[in-house]
Design a protein that fits this description.
seven-stranded mixed sheet; 32% strand
Length: 149
């Protein structure tokens, strides 16, 4: 999971206020997973995407962290599949909302989330917090999805 994250975030080295993802250790990833959950997406057995979800802050809200897809597999629907998995998991856990942060400089990332129904919640200067309220009546369950850990 850490290797996928580092690969995906490596192109963001030039951001003003550097991404913390580039300095995360395996221990930090492990600690996040112990306090939440994560998903590792695989294509033909190779890890190509990852995401962590923190659940400790509020039992009615998931906080998505570090959605990452390795560069050579970007723009192939993997991020969307991971987000779909996250929403199905949240609904199964009776969680009413997902929140996530997006760097303002990464407009294409914001567009991805907006296209998935996420809306502006709060502007924090160089990053924006988005949220998506979930409808507990939704009963979608994917037939195939990423491998969870």
């Amino acid at each position: 999971m850490q290797a996928v994250t580092l690969s995906a975030f490596a192109s963001q080295e030039g951001l003003d206020a550097p991404s913390g993802a580039l300095s995360e250790t395996v221990g930090k990833v492990r600690a996040d997973l112990l306090e939440g959950r994560g998903v590792l997406a695989r294509v033909r057995g190779e890890a190509v995407g990852a995401c962590r979800v923190l659940v400790r802050t509020d039992p009615d809200r998931y906080h998505m962290r570090r959605l990452a897809v390795i560069p050579e597999m970007q723009r192939r629907g993997i991020a969307r599949a991971i987000m779909r998995w996250l929403e199905v998991e949240a609904l199964a856990d009776r969680v009413g909302e997902i929140r996530l942060g997006v760097r303002n400089a990464l407009r294409s990332n914001s567009l991805l989330y907006e296209g998935l129904g996420y809306e502006l919640f709060c502007d924090h200067g160089f990053w924006t917090e988005l949220r998506k309220p979930l409808d507990p009546r939704a009963s979608a369950s994917p037939t195939a999805g990423p491998t969870t850990r």
